Amino acid sequence: MRILLIGASGCFGTEFQSIVDKKKIKLFHFPGKKLNILKHEELYKKIYFIKPKVIINSSALVGINQCEIEYQSAFAINSVGALNLAKICDRLNIILVQTSTHAVFDGKKNKSYDESDIPKPNNIYSGTKYLSELFVSSICSKYYILRFPTLYGKRQNNLKGFVDKVIYALNHGNPLKIAKDKIDSPTYARDAAKALMNIILKKKSLAYIIWQMRAK
Questions:
Q1: pLDDT in the model for residue 10
Q2: DSSP codes joined into one string, the chain
Q3: Mean pLDDT of 71-94
Q4: pTM for this entry
Q5: What CATH architecture applies to the domain 2-202?
């Protein structure tokens, strides 16, 4: 099986690569900067040449504050990139795995979310990720959408996730400022990668595989 992983240097992409090494799978992986998902024709040619059975799109501009400032880049990378991939995957009969976020919900529900809940994005980041879901589910005939909560684990890039920032602050005696009215479900990225691999290998028929936060 051939799998193309886009956005390979992040937390999820790094862990997914490590588990694929132990499988009989040909993995092609590129950091988001090495494969421009905004240039449709170039992207189509590369995908056509590789001929993957599955494409995993883990490329994204993340961070609520960063996306508010760089909103044009956020819409381009998070939404338009997914649109381009959806069109190509539908044309070439490729399964598209689109990673998304639990942030598509506003967090005001007083119990666990599930896939039947209606997303209510309330910032640029969550809005662009939800739009990527709509593009993929509207265009692709074969797809999975994964909504991750806060992920932690090894990563190849120099970015720091929420868990990394907390650990750094604790190790250096820095004060922590964390919202007390939100509850998340931090997930080990390697566990998420293994779960996705099982889905792909067992050819699950579910349209959505979602890791949700357990409360607001």
A1: 80
A2: -EEEEES-SSHHHHHHHHHHTTSS-EEEEE-GGGS-TT-HHHHHHHHHHH--SEEEE------HHHHHHTHHHHIIIIIIHHHHHHHHHHHHT-EEEEEEEGGGS-S--SS---TTSPP---SHHHHHHHHHHHHHHHH-SSEEEEEE-SEES--SSS---HHHHHHHHHHTT------SS-----EEHHHHHHHHHHHHHHT---SB-----S--
A3: 96
A4: 0.84
A5: 3-Layer(aba) Sandwich (3.40)
